[in-house]
Fold this protein.
Amino acid sequence: MGVTPPEPTEREPALTDDTRDRIRDLASRFDDPRSALLPALYTAQEQIGYLPQEAVQEVASVLQLPCAEVGAVASFYTMFYKRPVGQHVIGVCRTLSCALLGAESLLDYLSQKLDVKVGETTSDGRFTLREVECLGACDMAPAMMVDDTYYGNLTEEKLDEILSILGWTGGEDTGPPDESRD
């Protein structure tokens, strides 16, 4: 005796109408919709905070591109997040200039201070720690990016100062993260 599967339900869209309209507007500026792909993915990520598969599919649909192509682009670039991230994303450069000037020990310092491993988010949802490839900031190595801001010539003291500015209180619960990035 078989079990009748439930009727398929229509899933809720990942992207808002406003986000889809913004992506259409981006696409209208180019002859080829592929030219709008990176800004379209940024727009989707800006709304959701990361790019779940549903958002990738919707971007592909709006741009009328194959889902596999949009997914390949989204997975190639490290600036697109495949899973939820913290309010602030800290990306420490790990390539040659930064590595030679102590990036690994600074990454270890941040990991210990935030009590997370690379790739994890703090329990309060405020910070995600990542290791990234070249930031193009070799002149100020070791360097990192927090959100869209570059920081260089880093030391443990500078890291403490940056974390303090961003609201890190040493792991004390200070309530929910600021929702201003939504």
